[in-house]
Request: fold
Amino acid sequence: MGGVTSSIAAKFAFFPPNPPSYTVVADESYGGKLCIPEVPRRENVEVLKLRTHRGNEIVAVYVKHPNASASMLYSHGNAADLGQMFELFVELSLRLRVNVIGYDYSGYGQSTGKPSECNTYADIDAVYKCLKEQYGVKDEQLILYGQSVGSGPTVDLASRTPNLRAVVLHGPILSGLRVLYPVKHTYWFDIYKNVKKISMVDCPVLVIHGTADEVVDCSHGKQLYELCKKKYEPLWINGGGHCNLELYPVFFKHLKRFVLGLGKSKPATNGSHKTSLVSDSLKPTESGASNTLYLYSDLPDISRNSLDTRLDKTKKSNKPEKSRTSTDCFDRFRRRKGLVW
Reply:
């Protein structure tokens, strides 16, 4: 019965880009190493193919930072794949000074198999195993990052791994069913039961959510924050949507403060409900790279190819250099029906 339920849920929950935005080839000029021709080649990036315990072969991208003291395992949102997320991974590595590994779920991009809840758990387990065995990453050096539907495998792994450095939940869901209906109880056929698992996460948790998120209501993020054992000051971005939070300067500023401050300061306790609400004056940057990167003049200037297409229609003349159909960008009909997150 569980397999049938998972199959039905997959029809509503998973929308991999079709066709995929990238390919994977072996480059003979680089000793046969795997590469993605559709993205710029970088010496500090490795393309991997990993076998999961459910028999699927998934694609991952590992971005190395020369002075990294931590590694980030990024689980992306829906309707996106590695080709679209690549520049964001590079940007996160540069700004946060961490190694970043991102991966495609089974059935996404060039990963084999079909998308399902169980497969995403196997997918993140394979990436976690790779980090430990191939790169020597210890649990206390690892930050799990889950965006939207990616919060499902992220919270699941975090609930089973006691010594993680931290968890970041970006536009997270309470559960799959709760995205569609405001139910009060958790049913057996629900998927990604973050609402039940988050209390088992022992490390500091940062929750980021837009107050104008029309796909996953901000109440999801706020309730997960309340249920966290070790709370860190959350970020409620006033006016932020589901796919444009990286456009707000405060997004990277707050995230960087969290990541670089781990181990230096204590997270807020259960009794301390700090909030960080962005004022109306802090709007998304309209010119892409230059405005946001100005916050961190010590870092190299890189283009904001990672920015999303869901900008105000009136700002087309000032849109970023290049957009990505990232993290749950899908057609207006599906958004209105609430079928995808």
